[in-house]
Amino acid sequence: MASYAKLMNGLEELTLPKMQENLDIYTDMVNQGKMEFTQALEELVSKECEYRRERQNYANIHKANFPFLKTLDDFEFGFQPGLNKAEIMELRNLGFAEKSENIIFVGSSGVGKTHLATSIGIECAKRRYSTYFITFENLMNQLKKALNENRLEQRLKFFSGYKVLIIDELGYMPVDHDAANLFFQLIAKRYERHSTIVTTNMPFSKWAEVFGSSTLANAVLDRLLHHSTVISIKGPSYRLKEKREFLQDQSEKS
To answer: Whole-model pTM above 0.85?
Structure first.
């Protein structure tokens, strides 16, 4: 018993909780001749490694600041038949991140752009690519605040350093000249170095209206689109679908 207690204490000191948790089960199987000692040890180590991977995945996903946790398997492709499902599913292999390419999701509100961007971002975080999600409005507020506090370079370095940066809801409101220029600086720093995923409700032809300058809009688009995959979603809104289903349920109950 003394050696058993010493072994358990050692596993605790080394922070191997899954090996501690399953030690008795595998010890009994070895004693009963149901399993070789090396096989038992291999499976115990495997359980510990899987546990650590899960914990690391959770930590990476948590740090990425996602608005929700939804995977590509949760996406209702049947509701958006215009989407090329094979093309979307290929993105989960993360070849775009390895090549520092961008992804742009274009479509009206509620068609699933944020869901797709987040799902791909989760895959990136699981693969241990440094990933961060932020709305365009929040990003601009942070950069403008940093500019006013004379720490712009520090903040630009922070956002430009992520392997995958997801910028959500670009185009929902116009931006002033300072914000447009700050966004260009960020995209320029990330250009051909890291991947940027953008969701927008604005067709590219109207980006000049958002940025208040065709020159800045073209400069941003030039860098975003040079190495990119553009996914255009032309379909109904999931939010309106949920509203219709709710109203239908209420009507049936009345």
So the answer is: no
